[in-house]
Design a protein that fits this description.
This protein is an alpha/beta fold. The chain has helices at about 10-20, 45-55, 75-90, 105-120, 160-165, 185-195, and strands at about 1-5, 30-35, 60-65, 95-100, 140, 150-155, 200-205. The protein has a single domain (about 1-220), classed as Rossmann fold. About 35% of the residues lie in helices and about 15% in strands. The two termini are about 30 Å apart.
């Protein structure tokens, strides 16, 4: 999973992360920046908070690429994309979660573009990087500030409290779990998506390409 800043992974897909870990899947988070240009906190504080959130979520890997906050894609966009592509080849994820590209925050939309293109470069034979080429099975987009019509909604009713706890490890950013202190209404959004699938809480995800089904089993 890729996120623009520490706390974005938890805000956008914290429930999905917890569910994946509980199901025995190996999950990693790569933050592109430390969020050092934010109004609250600093580089060191936010890295420490992300490390605490890593332990809370139970993910195997949490890495920060250290690109400058508010200055993505950094000096050379292609070099940035290739650096991320190298990380994809290194870790070989079957699924990559990416922020949705329509977002009012420039770093969010730019991260979406960088990672989407990096997934493409990672599979190209003639792109020479430190690791052998690798093709990601699925690129799945999650919401931050922008919204979309979901390809699917994941029931996170059992995982919502741990999502909340992970978000609240970022003490420098959030004083409490409320509209006033969160960048968007996490509780209300998760309640809304949950209501669409007759669940308490849900997280929405979007795929550019349809998922191929071989039979009807998924519906029963």
């Amino acid at each position: 999973m890729f996120a623009p800043h520490p706390d974005d992974a938890e805000l956008g897909a914290g429930g999905a992360i917890v569910k994946a870990v509980d199901e025995g899947l190996a999950v990693g988070i790569i933050d592109l920046t430390t969020g050092e240009m934010g109004s609250l906190g600093n580089k060191e504080t936010r890295i420490n908070e992300a490390d605490k959130a890593k332990k809370n979520l139970g993910v195997k890997i949490r890495e920060n690429l250290g690109f400058p906050d508010a200055n993505l894609p950094f000096e050379d966009k292609k070099k940035t994309i290739l650096f991320v592509a190298s990380k994809i080849r290194e870790y070989q994820p079957k699924v990559v979660l990416i922020p949705y590209w329509e977002d009012r925050h420039p770093d969010h939309s730019t991260t979406s573009d960088i990672v989407t293109k990096a997934c493409h470069y990672a599979k190209l034979k003639k792109v020479e990087l430190d690791h052998p080429r690798y093709k990601v099975n699925h690129m799945i987009y999650y919401e931050l500030n922008g919204q979309f019509s979901p390809s699917y909604i994941l029931d996170i009713s059992q995982e919502f409290e741990r999502k909340k706890e992970a978000i609240m490890t970022y003490k420098s950013q959030f004083k409490e779990f409320s509209k006033e202190y969160l960048p968007f209404p996490v509780y209300e959004r998760c309640r809304f998506y949950g209501s669409l699938i007759l669940a308490d809480f849900g997280e929405a995800f979007f795929l550019k390409n349809p998922i191929a089904l071989k039979d009807w089993k998924i519906f029963f």
